[in-house]
Design brief:
Bound molecules: pyridoxal-5'-phosphate
Order of helices and strands: HHEEEHHHEHEHEEEEHEEEHHHEEHEEH
Distance between the termini: 49 Å
Helix content: 25-40%
Strand content: 15-25%
Low-confidence stretches: none
């Protein structure tokens, strides 16, 4: 019996977790996970929780999808780490890069693999500086791009970042979907880094024509347009990437979260001529030891193939409409969605905190948004079935009925 089995058999791990594992807030969820499968996470007492949030937009095929598990197991038994990124030819990496770029415009033909979303942001910012020779980056108010110092620099909400100053200079924030603010993009701008649909702002969709106008302004000024599709990518919005709804092509595309189907991986994708610039002046322009880890790449490839072969992406909007039609309730003020990226805004006299606590008690894991304190998130695995949607909606309606 391992130490882990012993500890687990004897007592809850909660005190040890609180004692030895760093936390990020005063009230962690403290759900003690036993195992997870499909749309469910099971705690150590056997209680199932519907993961309506896909572990923060990660588990696009649900938990422990057999194809992803098999890919991980096979790759782990074949080889894991061999050397730093970009030196050895590893088939999971190569095949994943090929498959990913096949889903995109032909100009997005080269992938730099990293380990996380924030790392994709860091790499993309460096790429923009290297390609344009400029250093100013523009990002949106109420955007979240990660928590490393570069990604944190992009945030406008200094309540979260003032303790970590100084951050990067040369960052400016524009308002999402403001046509007027496009004038702030100029010949000094290296890049505009933006989510095509704002996630943490509470699923905010740009006004018609905005993303096209943004593309045009970047073209006029020579700034790179970089889409952070770390939440919106991998089919969540009903297209492989959200920008494909609008027929716009970014210069750099960022993916992470659901890319690995539950394994850690991120990527920034651009044209080969741009990414080649990391190879000289200076050589080794961007490095990572574990980026594009073969096991993560194998998981990502299996995830992508399953998503495409089973056509889960095209079902996202249909499933969303089922949620919307079943969640008609006087305590719901508005539902915003693109595919299964959804925000449900409660009436303003209803306590979102009470709702969330009741949901947890009833075995439903939803989530807050960082910058929208009136809405909760629905972003389930794309494999969710109609029966499961009905079951979840019945529970949510029941909770709303009981709320004071
Ligand atoms: N970009 C967006 C839109 C995100 O939602 C997140 C994480 O929530 C990130 C970037 C950062 O990703 P990671 O947590 O993998 O660093």
């Amino acid at each position: 019996m391992s130490v882990f089995d012993e500890l687990r058999g004897m007592t809850s791990l909660r005190p040890l977790f609180l004692r030895h594992v760093a936390q990020t807030g005063p009230e962690p969820f403290l759900l003690e996970v036993d195992h997870a499968s499909g749309i469910y996470i099971y705690d150590v007492k056997g209680m199932p929780y519907v993961d309506l949030n896909s572990g923060y937009c990660v588990s696009v095929l649900g938990h422990c999808h057999p194809r992803v598990v098999a890919a991980v197991q096979n790759q782990a038994a074949t080889y894991m780490h061999t050397t730093v990124y970009g030196e050895h030819i590893q088939s999971p990496q190569v095949l994943l890069a090929k498959k990913l770029t096949e889903q995109l415009d032909s100009s997005l033909d080269c992938v730099f693999f990293v380990n996380s979303g924030a790392e994709a942001v860091e790499g993309a910012m460096k790429l923009a500086k290297r390609v344009t020779g400029r250093h100013e980056i523009i990002a949106c108010h109420h955007a979240y791009h990660g928590s490393t110092q570069g990604a944190d620099s992009l945030r406008s909400d200094i309540d979260y970042t003032s303790a970590f100053m100084p951050l990067l200079p040369g960052i400016r924030n524009i308002h999402f979907s403001s046509f007027d603010d496009l004038d702030l993009i100029n010949e000094a701008t290296a890049a505009v880094l933006i989510e095509p649909i704002q996630g943490e702002a509470g699923v905010r969709i740009a006004d018609p024509g905005y993303l096209q106008a943004l593309r045009k302004r970047c073209d006029e000024t020579g700034a790179l347009l970089m889409f952070d599709e770390i939440q919106t990518g991998m089919g969540r919005t009903g297209r492989f990437c959200a920008h494909q709804h609008d027929n716009i092509v970014p210069d750099v595309l960022l993916l992470a979260k659901s890319l690995g189907g539950g394994m850690p991986i991120g990527a920034f994708i651009s044209r080969k001529t741009y990414l080649n610039q990391f190879t000289h002046n200076p050589v080794l322009g961007h490095l990572t030891t574990f980026g594009g880890h073969p096991v993560s790449c194998a998981a990502a490839l299996a995830t992508l193939e399953e998503l495409l072969e089973k056509d889960f992406i095209s079902k996202a909007e249909l499933h969303a409409q089922r949620f919307i039609s079943r969640l008609q309730h006087p305590k719901i003020r508005e539902i915003r969605n693109v595919g299964l990226m959804m925000a449900v805004e409660l009436q303003h006299d209803i306590s979102l905190a009470d709702f969330m606590h009741h949901a947890l008690d009833h075995g439903i894991l939803t989530d807050w948004f960082l910058f929208d304190k009136r809405s909760f998130r629905i972003a389930p695995p794309l494999i969710i079935t109609e029966e499961e949607i009905d079951f979840v909606c019945d529970r949510l309606i029941d909770i709303l009925d009981r709320l004071g």
